Amino acid sequence: MAMKHNMKKTFPMSQVLSVTSMKLFCEFSKLVEILKFLSNDNQLFSHQLPRVAREVIPYIYRECPGLEHYEFSKEVNVDTWKEILEDVEAKFGKFVELEPIPADDHSIRNPTEELKEMMGDHRNKVIEIDLDQDDREDWEK
């Protein structure tokens, strides 16, 4: 289900960089938050996040010129991520103001069907669970 946003929102560079680099510089929940906002889609599942990131990255680069060409000076890992983030913040700022991408540039897909497609020949390992209405309401809370 699509969320309705007609406004900009300011995000910390840690969230922005997590999307553009596809490496975590923030909590996972914060990565999901920015992708939901930018895509206007509040029903994203974990396996859909890389696709949605690819959809929104060009829009992030438009709002943060030069970030597209930033090259990490070292491998991102548990020991280096803070130093890298500080370098990016020094060059591009600590925050980026973003707005949702146009609806036509985001594909809202059935998460189960998308997972089956991703699994290819292994799709018989996808187990569908049919929740009754009460379970769905609990799930969406």
Which key phrases capture this entry?
141 residues, mainly alpha, 2 domains, two-stranded antiparallel ribbon, 2 strands, globular
Report on the structure:
This protein is mainly alpha-helical and 141 residues long. 45% of the residues lie in helices and 6% in strands. The chain is globular and about 50 Å long. The two termini are 14 Å apart.
Strand order of the largest sheet: 1-2
Total number of β-strand segments? 2
- Domains (count): 2
Subunit arrangement of the protein: single chain
Instruction: Report the structural category.
Output: mainly alpha
How much of the residues is beta strand, in percent?
5-15%
Distance between the termini: 14 Å
- Helix % is 40-55%
Order of SSEs: EHHHHEHH
Low-confidence segments: none
> If you average the pLDDT, what whole number results?
82
What's the arrangement of secondary structure elements?
Blueprint: E1 9-12, H1 13-21, H2 28-39, H3 49-63, H4 81-92, E2 95-98, H5 111-119, H6 133-139
Antiparallel strand pairs: 1-2
Helix pairs in contact: 1-2, 2-3
